[in-house]
Fold these 4 entries.
Entry 1:
Amino acid sequence: MGAPGGAPTSPTIRPATVDDVPALHRLVRDLAAYERQSHAVTATPQDLRDALFPEDGDPAVCADVAEVDGEVVGLAVWFLTFSTWTGQHGIWLEDLFVEPEHRGTGLGRMLLEGLAARAVERGYTRVEWTVLDWNAPAIRFYRSLGAEPLEEWRTQRLHGDALARVARRAEQRA
């Protein structure tokens, strides 16, 4: 697919649809491989479909896609946050990924600009995300946009056995 004469069409940034789930799953796996975490991906296409397009209400997570010539080549997966300090919502960018052969074409910037526009339009006060400390190209890209590192903040995570152990403590009190 392309413009007449075989030229590529303009890239499109749009909300993901249920038909995009296979491409989203492929991109999630590609992102995990890039981040050296392929072993950590347990999500199935059905898991993504259920999270992004639940049958019983509004989704708790959303996705935008970057499309070139009818093919999904990038994604931004995000959800709402809330700041008690500002009393306003924000957007947490869980994943931003553009296929390597499409990097440098502005798609990542367009995905982030779309999130920023959505945040401003809705009165949200921030868009936040994490980046691996070794991912120098991504860090340079984010800095070029004006993103500020929050060096004093450290992400914490409960998962696996630790999550189960902490949950059992609550259950024991009930």
Entry 2:
Amino acid sequence: MEQLCIVTTGGTIDKIYFDDKSDFQVGEPQIGRILEELGVAFRYSVIPIIRKDSLHITDEDRELIRATIAAQDARHVLVTHGTDSMVQTAQVLSTLTDRTIVLTGALNPARFRGSDAEFNIGTAVGAVQSLPPGVYIAMNGRVWHPAKVRKNVAANRFEAAD
């Protein structure tokens, strides 16, 4: 992997909560800070393009994500994304067949102790380096093809689609 291109779109991984009533905003991307603190041994760039909860990501936003990735020279791309519509975005990105793209996020904000953010990022980094070109989702310690996974909202995890 020459350099990892990271595209950030917001989601829970970057959320900042202000009170116990779930008043939040999507803050600065956390992945650069996380990778810096972990002292990773690869080069990366972070392109923050939107800051939205994934429930608010539109078809136009998905096209912006696709166009942004298509415009990069990088063949290895990691996308941080909210979990609620991650699968839909992955399906849009599947038209980019010449690179390996892995989407990941978090079920708890990266700023929270015990967040799954670092683990999911680590899984995604390993996946993006080792998988053939295509689009994948890395969540809950697994790597999924977008057509074969769904978010189980009640259980708050990703699982095989029926």
Entry 3:
Amino acid sequence: MILQPVTDDLAAYLAADEVIDHRHPPVQQLAAELATPEAAFLHVRDQVLHSADAGFWSGAFRASEVLAARNGICHAKSHLLAALLRAQGVPTGLCYQRLEDGEGGFVLHGLIAAHLDGRWSRLDARGNCEGVDARYDLEQERLAWPVRPELGECDYPGVYAAPPAELAEALATAVPGESGYGYLPSELPGQETSPLA
């Protein structure tokens, strides 16, 4: 699919903010230790548990908190990966998918886009489990959840420098230990959707 950065200013995708707080010393230290974007991806995918897989919702969503908790939902893991890559000097944004939730509704899934080799590439560090085989691949997307348009699922083409306000507000309401995604919006309001190209 054709990704659409919300700004042409790559500096916006290197900025530190309240959520992608990559100037936090432990985040910087880990980014330096990992040294490469692929190592950062593998660390977040494999060493930070997805809350659903762990059976415990940490409630963490700021990158530094996710690193400390070593547990978070897809959005949280995306924030940590974005922070690690920004700390390595790689412009990185946030991307979203609307996915069917298995109960007749939808859930908003978070992943990242990294600006490497002169172009944006989406990467999904959700964490592999049965039926999920996300990989670091800059040539061909290997996401956790390829969308199924026939079910109403979609990719949002936007690449965001920070989480949209409504999503950030929802993430801040997560209750540690309380499972489920009911606090999250099911879509990005007012955003165009795009089928996979």
Entry 4:
Amino acid sequence: MLARVPAGRWTTYGDLAQLIGTAPQPLGRHLAICTERSPAHRVLAYDGTIPPGFRWTDPNDRRKPEDVLRSEGVSFPHGRADAGRRLTAADLKALVDAGV
């Protein structure tokens, strides 16, 4: 499911969790330890901020997730990802239903 979130878009732990039938906290814990979590930088906190515990799979990767998201077309007005670029649970479901 996470791989279906396209560049330039983002979703929340809550939206993704709702779609797969879990809660945001266990999903976040899973993403923190899963090595196959690309593109986890596109999953943000409910308010469009980067989760404080975010880490790249590669411990040597020093990029800021916000910089990567900006390079993909997501702006951060007032320190939060542009809400117009967010994919809700319904949007994610539509991607799945469309086979994207």
